[in-house]
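[SOLVED] Need 3D model of a two-part complex

Original post:
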Amino acid sequence: MNIRIAAVTILRIALGVLLVVAGALKVGHALDLAASIASFRLLPPAVVAPLAIALPFVEIFVGLYLAIGLFTRWAAMLAALQFALYGVAVASAVLRGLAPNCGCFGPNDRATADWPHAAFDFALALCATLVAIYAPGSLALDRRISTQ
Amino acid sequence: MNRRALLIFSIVALLVIAVVAIVVVKFQPTQQLQNASTAPIVAPASVGSIAPTFSTPTTQGEFDLATVKRPVLLEVFATWCPHCQYETGVLDRLYTRYGKQIAFIAIPGSTTDITGTGPSSQEDVQGFIDRFGVRYPVAMYDPNLSVAKAYIQGGYPTIAMIDRSKHIVYLKSGQRNYASLAGAVKHLLR
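Solution:
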């Protein structure tokens, strides 16, 4: 296995596990997630509520597909889009002075908006993009599933 | 299972997740989820503008902004907010030092109680006062949050300072320490 394939494999599985764990931690905490999303003041309440319910399951779904290497390119692109959107949301909150580190935005709000957080999200988006470009790596179901 | 079947299954699964989420919110909405989905408003009040006038009963008698002669320090708080709970100590110190020169008033600004799960009430506000030893005047709980909505700046606590000519000279959201607020108060008293 060459270095590039090994790196893509490690990144793919790590991102997949990260998304599964992140999603699993959010399941059953729709209130917390809704307050966090609402605190960024980017989406109307009518969108926030269903997003808070669906997002954990989408993260688990995408994470699982990344981890097992199924439809890797699509899963990685979805993950990259998601992380990029998170980074943009956090960055915009910081720029708009909404950094909630010293204030409360909702009884369940746990959001943290600062530049390191935004940078981390953009870094994850970059990793997911690399996985999408060099997909699927090894140990991937994509290599075994037929095209019939 | 071949690739095409897996692809169809994947798309259907994602669609099912989305549809279920929308259906749950639409047909079984909970007040808590709706409250959590709405961030606190940003009132149109701003530094330099005339402070929205109001009158409200408080723990220390009626407060009427129109007739108060002293400068005013106003806080919008939520009982569940840990930053507001911290701020009670800061505001108590300021009240001890400047209570004769400045009129203090704290306004309950959330319909959620101290546990973060139930509705707020006058009992909830009184419990907050007792638990944190609040000595400055606190407005009676208003379920319409009419005064809070005139001042809140998107989060708790929101602190406003109003000079003798009823202009807002300080308006910030978020926890502040004693030194920061004391500096602003000295400026208010000039």
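Edit: Residues 53 and 129 of chain A are 26 Å apart (CA to CA).
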